[in-house]
Amino acid sequence: MSNRQRVLSGVQPTGDLHLGNYLGAIRNWVEGQNQYDNFFCVVDLHAITVPYNPATLAADTYKVAALYLACGIDLNYSSIFIQSHVSAHSELTWLLNCITPLNWLQDMVQYKEKAIKQGENVSVGLLDYPVLMSSDILLYQADKVPVGEDQKQHIELTRDIVNSFNHKFAKPNQPVLKLPEPLIRKEGARVMSLTDGTKKMSKSDPSDLSRINLLDSPDEIAKKIKRCKTDPVRGLEFDNPERPESNNLLNLYMLLSGKTKQEVAVECQDMGWGTFKPLLTETTINALKPIQEKYKAVTEEKGYLESVLREGKQKAEAIANQTLLQVKAAMGYSAPL
Ligand code: AQP
Hints:
The chain is mostly helical. It has helices at residues 19-32, 44-47, 54-71, 88-97, 102-106, 109-118, 124-139, 152-169, 218-227, 244-257, 261-268, 273-300, 304-331; strands at residues 6-11, 37-42, 78-82, 144-146, 181-183.
């Protein structure tokens, strides 16, 4: 076994992955992966906490897994698996549910936001989402969890659950569960919607024009950037709270071009939107091209993705089942016969 610290993260198969998921999460997984022992899962159990289509769930799940590979997840450092294939995730969730106070979950911002959107049909699963996420992380005794800014509160809750669990069930100085830390990069941590620079880019936004999906064609990218919200001011600038769209689009340009903030600020300070938009379009198309080519190759190789996921499941299960046994023993359950 390696001595490297362990990383766990995932994305829900709730729609097409977009630049927010890539720049806020997956790109950071890729860049840091050779320093860690990584587990990346497609969190399909999370995907059913909001209304979903059973007819496309399996295909959507495979698509996300293929995109992990397309974005550069390297199997020499990382395992990729599907959450629902490792049943320990559900079982640990039940055990942790029973030590998690209800009001901790009712305070979660994501729950409140999504509950408002769903009106009358809010499921217990939506409320319980952060406990399932805690189980995902804790089963692997993960040291680090690379996520976008929106998930920080859930990691804090995970830490509270760890402290509560170890306090109740572990012997002094022999913690059963490891305290994980969020890994949030400042750049890309919160990519905003193309149609409203004050709202985060999201798979579940009803308007596809609000986001650039990783598999969008050059024409779609051009159309979305052409129609994206701007302001009447000439010259673009970062960090002006009165100009959220300018800040967001400059950040996208910076991250996708690989230029520094200073370089971009100087290059675009006198630019009008009519010059900037084609520049951003070309940069985005070029940045996504290698991902799209790799995606095509991964999905065209018959049986390849299945073999990656099978191997990932085996590696994940070996660790997850061990942690589950330790948790159950600490909680007073008899050993399985
Ligand atoms: N706009 C964003 N900017 C930066 N990071 C983001 N992430 C999501 N949106 C942005 C990060 O992507 C990872 C996977 O997210 P998820 O699928 O688990 O759920 P989410 O955070 O709720 O993402 P979406 O796109 O908004 O999905 P829906 O609409 O289904 O809820 C996480 O690390 C997240 O931080």
